[in-house]
Amino acid sequence: MAILKIARMGHPVLKRRAEEVEDPTSPEIAKLIKDMEDTLADVGGVGLAAPQVHVPLRVVIFHVPKARMEAEDGEGPAIGVPLTYLINPIIEPIGEPGGADMEEGIEACLSVPGLAGAVPRFRQIRYTGVTPTGEPIDRIAAGFHARVVQHECDHLDGVLYPMRMTDLSKLSFVEELKRFSGEEAED
């Protein structure tokens, strides 16, 4: 088990486009993913991108807790999204930017510790990529699932959530956000 150090905002690895993974099934990628999984479990987040652990490759891992899906849906039991390993992802927004196809939500990030902000994202996306075994992934995601994938994949292009914010007055310390608004931020 290896817990990797998280790169913080300002580090050069977070400012550049990550490189494509040539062989998703390589032992090096398997080790990276295992270390990312251990790191994510240790810090308690919902997603992690390879650049966040100082590796400039197009790899993300994420999960969506069942409770988070139920809270969002409000219509009975949800299944959540199990831990997903996505290599060389491509995101296709579903809908038009700036309109009803987007919604603002509170986000936090392991690379921007202690802060959270309101970020506009597409409500629904399609994402594709491959798994560490080389199997293709092709999914439609909505709501928080779509938000998590967009957030993590932004890291692969050198984008942190504050760069997506349209109103910096909605950037807060997590402690203050919880204390005064009751909203929770997720990474």
TrEMBL record:
Its cofactor is Fe(2+). The keyword Ligase does not apply. Coiled coil: none annotated. Its EC number is 3.5.1.88. It catalyses: N-terminal N-formyl-L-methionyl-[peptide] + H2O = N-terminal L-methionyl-[peptide] + formate. The active site is at E152. Keywords: Hydrolase, Iron, Metal-binding, Protein biosynthesis. Signal peptide: none annotated. It comes from the Bacteria. Fe cation binds at C109, H151, H155. InterPro entries: Peptide_deformylase (IPR023635), Peptide_deformylase_sf (IPR036821). Binds 1 Fe(2+) ion. Removes the formyl group from the N-terminal Met of newly synthesized proteins. Requires at least a dipeptide for an efficient rate of reaction. N-terminal L-methionine is a prerequisite for activity but the enzyme has broad specificity at other positions. NCBIfam families: PRK00150.1-3. Belongs to the polypeptide deformylase family. This is Peptide deformylase. The lineage of its organism: Bacteria, Pseudomonadati, Pseudomonadota, Alphaproteobacteria, Rhodospirillales.
